[in-house]
Amino acid sequence: MKKLRVGIIGVGKISGIYLENLTKMFSSVVQVVGVVDLLAQRAAEIAQTFKIQQYADVKAMLADPEIDLVLNLTTPQSHYSLCKQALEAGKHVYVEKPLSLTVEQASELVDLASSKGLILGGAPDTFLGAGIQTCRKLIDDGWIGRPIGASAFMMNHGHESWHPDPEFYYKQGGGPLFDMGPYYIIALVNLLGPVDSVTGYAQKSFATRTITSEPKKGEVIDVDVATHVAGVLHFAGGAVATLVTSFDVWHHSMPRMEIYGSEGSLQVPDPNTFGGPVLFCTKGTKEWKEIPLLFDYAENSRGLGVADIALALADTKKHRASGELTRHVVEVMCSLLASAENKRQVAIKHTCQRPLPR
């Protein structure tokens, strides 16, 4: 099959694992052609290391007929504008999470891709990994009976104690919901189907944050976003999930994710990873049993979503980390915040298909 030729915009921290995997793990279906970054020296170093092209700017990359797909690894504030430019240039697009910061922008991108016959996809692709796909098969095969509920908790005390540049996480597009929520929501949708309504509460627990990590130790960050968000998600299939994302919690003992059914329960691995332990407990017992992973890609396999697009293009199949799915995630997050602000339940307008299993 013809390889999917990829150009990467943005070579910050997350780009390392993408480049490593796309040039090795997925090299049979993907070819990385080149990179571009606002910091030209950083892009030059990457280009030299991986022996690929460095573009002078985004315009030059989008004008290159050798690029089939643009992989957008920039910060969330740039996702919408750069994805739009790439689609308008006739390129397929895969973007890091979230697809955009508003439902309107997400819908515009989905519609634009459709009108041009292009593929739009987005992170996270962790739900395609061995851990969550094993959970998906167990649910589909009836191990827990009819799914009735779920819980998901992503709680820590933020990035200022370890991240070298943590300001972004407290600005628009950051916060625990937009930063980590996509991993949890997309995993829940993969396991339970689309969400049809949400109710949320949100608060900014601390007005400022003091950085304790180097090199900006001692600097004070003004917090502009909610840092503790609690919500209830009602799924079209009838299940109800509790979701909490927080940068305000020092310690906790809650599970990352569990799915509850009429016949048993599942402990789901960390949705920010591709592998991890899967635990099952059936009715009438009290002991959790670890289930062996039934699929490949248990290691850090970022780039799997891009490879899935390459295979979809070759076989004319539907790729799974789709624009419709990532738009659905954006709408769930935006609706949780809208619910918190307006103190009411919010219906989800844009549904999506439950992704096909691997």
Q: What secondary-structure arrangement, pairings included, does this model have?
A:
Blueprint (H helix, E strand, L loop, with lengths): L3 E6 L5 H9 L6 E7 L3 H11 L2 E2 L3 H5 L6 E4 L6 H10 L3 E4 L7 H14 L3 E3 L7 H11 L6 E9 L19 H18 L2 E9 L4 E3 L9 E3 L5 E8 L4 E7 L10 E5 L2 E4 L10 E5 L6 E3 L12 H12 L7 H20 L3 E2 L11
Parallel strand pairs: 1-2, 1-4, 2-3, 4-5, 5-6, 7-12
Antiparallel strand pairs: 7-13, 8-11, 8-17, 9-10, 11-12, 13-14, 14-15, 15-16
Helix pairs in contact: 4-5, 5-9, 7-9
Describe this structure in words.
By secondary structure, the chain is α/β, with parallel strands linked by helices. It has 2 domains: 4-125 and 303-320, NAD(P)-binding Rossmann-like Domain (Rossmann fold), CATH 3.40.50; 127-296 and 327-347, Dihydrodipicolinate Reductase, domain 2 (2-Layer Sandwich). It is 31% helix and 23% strand. The strands form 3 sheets. Strands 16-15-14-13-7-12-11-8-17 form a 9-stranded mixed sheet. It has a 6-stranded parallel sheet with strand order 3-2-1-4-5-6, sandwiched between helices. Helix 4 packs parallel to helix 5 (103-116) and helix 7 crosses helix 9 (323-342). The longest helix is centred in the C-terminal third of the chain and has 20 residues, at 323-342. The two termini are 20 Å apart.
Question: Which CATH-level-2 architecture of the largest domain?
Answer: 2-Layer Sandwich
What is the CATH topology of the largest domain? Dihydrodipicolinate Reductase, domain 2
Helix and strand composition category: alpha/beta
Estimate the strand proportion.
15-25%
Question: Which term fits the overall shape?
Answer: globular
Low-confidence stretches: none
Largest sheet: 9 strands, mixed
Chain-averaged pLDDT: 97
